Amino acid sequence: MRYLIFFILFASTLFSLHIEMSQKSVANGKTALLEFEKKDGILYEKLILDKKEYKVYEHPLDAKKYYALIPISYYEKPSKKTIKLLYKQDAKEMSKTVALEVKDGFYKKETLKVQQSKVTLSQKDKKRAEKEYVEAMKVYNTSTPKSYITSEFIAPMQSKITSEFGKARIYNDTLKGYHSGTDYRASVGTPIVASNDGVVALVKDRFYSGGSVIIDHGHGIYTCYFHMSKFDVKRGQEVKRGETIGLSGKSGRVTGPHLHFSARVASEQVDPLQLIELLNKNLF
Q1: What are the φ/ψ torsions at residue 235 (nearest 5 degrees)?
Q2: Which residue, 23, 76, 90, 238, shows the most beta carbons closer than 10 Å to its own?
Q3: Structural domains of the chain sorted by starting position, each given as residue range(s) with its CATH number in brackets
Q4: Per-residue pLDDT for the chain (284 aa), expressed as one digit of tens each?
């Protein structure tokens, strides 16, 4: 059974444009999914929300549909939004709108104690972290036209979740943002598997996230695996769902060994487990 489907019918002299929306409202840090029927003479171009543009892609598994993902920033406040769909009908520019409500995710707070050098950075470490951030955002801002997804997403390991996405994080009594992923309990050396098919976009030891692997699943969807102790893949390598990509560790800014699993959609950081559930229930 899919999520609650929101049906909107737009009247037209020639046809009825049918849009399926995964939900009427979505919390900050979560993702919404829209689907469009493929029709002769209709060319879907893009969606616009708050001046940001989002691409419309061919459905990875249903040749009769297109789809689009709308990631909502963690920092977005509760509000009523309007998503504008731009499309062409027989070469004529057209547009329609869809209402979306952003609600509060009510995320909890979490206090952590780490090495002070990981909170108050030296100039050298600061430059390194900034360089790595720019490098990663270059990856996330790349939207591969091809989708590598052919089956449902899976968890990167079967283990207890020790920290959920979205918790406001206080390092050494100083607020330093929020938890951008989901943490799994994992002693050093626990195998980590790819959540789905894709291409490895980055393999690197980084200041904050330690041993890092980022997988491009196509269509602007990325999954990330941090604090690893060993890599079993290389950049540019194609991987399959369930394939071991390396071992867990305690590298980077951590309080102990674990796997930090996160996701990006259209470069926006989103709740990885909600994204996986959304895609699995709506695309398969």
Answers
A1: -60, 135
A2: 76
A3: 6-103 (2.60.40.10), 109-283 (2.70.70.10)
A4: 333 333 333 333 334 677 888 888 999 999 999 999 999 999 999 999 999 999 999 999 999 999 999 999 999 999 999 999 999 999 899 999 999 999 999 998 777 676 776 667 899 999 999 999 999 999 999 999 999 999 999 999 999 999 999 988 776 666 567 899 999 999 999 999 999 999 999 999 999 999 999 999 999 999 999 999 999 999 999 999 999 999 999 999 898 999 999 999 999 999 999 999 999 999 88
Task: Say which residues have a Cβ less than 8 Å from residue 134's Cβ, sequence separation at least 6.
Answer: none
Count, residues in the chain: 284
Nearest Cα to 182, choosing from 206, 207, 208, 157?
A: 157
Nearest to 137 by CA among 78, 220, 75: 220
CA distance 175 to 63: 47
